[in-house]
Amino acid sequence: MSYTTPDTAIRSAMIDRVKFNADGLITAIAQQHDTGEILMLAWMNAAALDETLRTGRVCYYSRSRGGLWRKGETSGQVQHLVDARLDCDRDAVLLLVDQTGVACHTGRRSCFYNALRPEGIVEITQPDVAAETLYGKG
Amino acid sequence: MSYTTPDTAIRSAMIDRVKFNADGLITAIAQQHDTGEILMLAWMNAAALDETLRTGRVCYYSRSRGGLWRKGETSGQVQHLVDARLDCDRDAVLLLVDQTGVACHTGRRSCFYNALRPEGIVEITQPDVAAETLYGKG
């Protein structure tokens, strides 16, 4: 399955149906399209969702920086969109993606590595790449 | 893999490390543990997360009703917990579950059935069971 960009009018009509919250955001889940692995959870505003649908490259909204967050722009760890699906309430979106490298800023493939186990919080994966390698040393 | 309940002290210590938002909530993703299918996205407060970890049956927090939402209590469509994993920021939790029946209140297995396609929003699945069957006719 490969992604095809909807035209501007279709994108606009689809985004009009999304229920953004009081801050203008929806929750976005990124899942590796072929393995089913959950990579990360982040947020999108209307502009981020439109850019993602237009370009086929995933763009989030960074709540900490207050602006668009083109995933992988600094690290090179981009997400190519395969399919996007709204839920029944249209206030969350599932992004099926092809992840280049790792999704997590810690250098792990997935952000969800802290398992809640009988012995406490257990890190079930280690970084595939050092964070310094992803983001430079300043 | 089967779920083992952490004891009270371990649960309490783990929940102390979770970063709940200003409303006291975290985002929760439910994924069918063996197929990787994303079932739904909902919210948990500390009490819901503790009940889930204690009982091995998933309990959310309903923002619309303002109280605990024991998934399947009315419909019988319960979620048995297999594993729970916090993300790197500890403000979202991935629940690997065994879903009885359907997760969505529309009678579909997954809530994420509205695909954003070149032709517009396309419903890619139909209900497996009528909502009236799940919730009665009042």
Q: Care to describe what's here?
A:
Chain A is an alpha+beta fold and 138 residues long. Chain A has helices spanning 8-16, 46-55, 131-135, and strands spanning 26-32, 38-44, 59-62, 67-70, 79-86, 92-99, 114-117, 120-123. In chain A, the strands form 3 sheets. In chain A, strands 2-1-6-5 form a 4-stranded mixed beta sheet, with helices on one face. Chain A has a two-stranded antiparallel ribbon with strand order 3-4. In chain A, α1 (8-16) packs antiparallel against α2. The N and C termini of chain A lie far apart (39 Å). Chain A binds chain B through residues 4-7, 10, 13-14, 17, 27, 29, 31, 35-38, 40-41, 53, 83-90, 92-94, 104-106, 108, 111-121, 124, and chain B through 4-7, 10, 13-14, 17, 27, 29, 31, 35-38, 40-41, 53, 83-90, 92-94, 104-106, 108, 111-121, 124. β5 of chain A pairs antiparallel with β7 (114-117) of chain B, so a sheet runs across the interface.
Percent range for β-strand residues of chain A:
25-35%
Rg of chain A (CA only): 16 Å
Overall pLDDT of chain A = 96
- Which oligomeric form is depicted? homodimer
Helix content of chain A: 10-25%
The geometry of chain A reads as: globular
Instruction: Give the helix tally of chain A.
Output: 3
Which structural class do you get from the secondary structure elements of chain A? alpha+beta
**What is the N-to-C order of secondary-structure elements of chain A (H for helix, E for strand)?**
HEEHEEEEEEH
* Poorly predicted sequence stretches spanning 5 or more consecutive residues of chain A: none
Sheet of most strands of chain A: 4 strands, mixed
Name the biggest interface: A-B, 45 and 45 residues
Total beta-strand segments of chain A: 8
Distance between the termini of chain A: 39 Å
